[in-house]
């Protein structure tokens, strides 16, 4: 009986101690109420700390997402055509808005020569770090089959995004006496009229070939290193006909130094509302535009390139950019990173087939 009583007493003490076990500090004991208060206070403090940590973490994530790879960095943007030409005008215009979106500085570097191949080769030979990019257009990925001494091919490029698709304007020198499409076609009957193109085997070449096929004409091909040089010779009478991009021809047209005949887009362009399309002058469905985009060396981190593409996309959505572009004769047309990958490959094959079918005719 005595043993049972002792056991019962031990059990009760054990229960009491277990109930107060959470408040035992340094071997002593305190009352349950203050201990509970401390536990609650500790829990609230931990909760506040957790919330603060969560907020800080969220802020850090937001900051990292907003800052991205390009914030504070300098990007060298190679334009493989001369200053003042259509490519140069378009790239410098959109770069201002990309800089704003990504927090970077874009330095445009005109590296001319070799039908664009010298500048592109410089970009493709640089580090694949996302900080040396280049302007690219319709025929650039086919350089190895179109241009002598070029070794790069489509696999050398990492396409990023497209930002524009610009029409050409068929223009005549005042010295030619050509004032309309009928006169231009008449001048193309004997194959002696000089037709200036802004680069060998660029979209300029294909526009000339398409126009000759549609109208049954033939012109003498004269290749220049960029559209600005074509316009200069149109103005001084050393070339009779040329097809500069609208963006690079506006100043000369406004000054009445060259004669606009037609635009190559499906619809009239806002900056030249009085100049008709080729299509509306009897050649239904005729359309030829120069798409404009950016590329990096193959092997560049895809995540980095997607960030740049997003910066381009935001620029293209910017109403201020759209207004400036329309005024400058640049037709905004955005293809995001994924869409541009597919388009770049399809365009490459189309251009390759066109070149193979027409390489002898262009001579």
Can you characterise this structure?
The chain contains twelve helices and eleven strands. Strand 6 (194-197), helix 7 and strand 7 form a beta-alpha-beta unit. Helix 3 (86-102) crosses helix 9, helix 3 crosses helix 10 (302-317) and helix 3 (86-102) runs antiparallel to helix 11 (319-328). Helices cover 47% and strands 17% of the residues. It has 363 residues and is an alpha/beta fold. It has two domains: 74-166 and 290-358, 3-Layer(aba) Sandwich (D-Maltodextrin-Binding Protein, domain 2), CATH 3.40.190.150; 169-289, Periplasmic binding protein-like II (D-Maltodextrin-Binding Protein, domain 2, 3-Layer(aba) Sandwich). A six-stranded mixed β-sheet has the order 2-1-3-10-4-11, sandwiched between helices. The model is unreliable at 1-66 (pLDDT under 50). It is globular and about 55 Å long.
Strand content: 15-25%
Spatially, the strands of the biggest sheet line up as 2-1-3-10-4-11
Distance between the first and last residues' Cα = 122 Å
**Helix count?**
12
Low-confidence stretches: 1-66
| Mean residue pLDDT | 85
Shape: globular
Counting helices, strands and paired strands, the structural category is: alpha/beta
Looking at CATH, which topology of the largest domain would you report?
D-Maltodextrin-Binding Protein, domain 2
Any idea what the radius of gyration is?
A: 34 Å
String of helices and strands = HHEHEHEHEEHEHEHEHEEHHEH
Main sheet attributes: strand count, strand direction, barrel closure: 6 strands, mixed
Number of strands: 11
Which CATH first-tier class of the largest domain would you pick?
Alpha Beta
Q: Write down the domain tally.
A: 2
Looking at CATH, the homologous superfamily of the largest domain is Bordetella uptake gene, domain 1
Helix content: 40-55%
Write the CATH architecture name of the largest domain: 3-Layer(aba) Sandwich
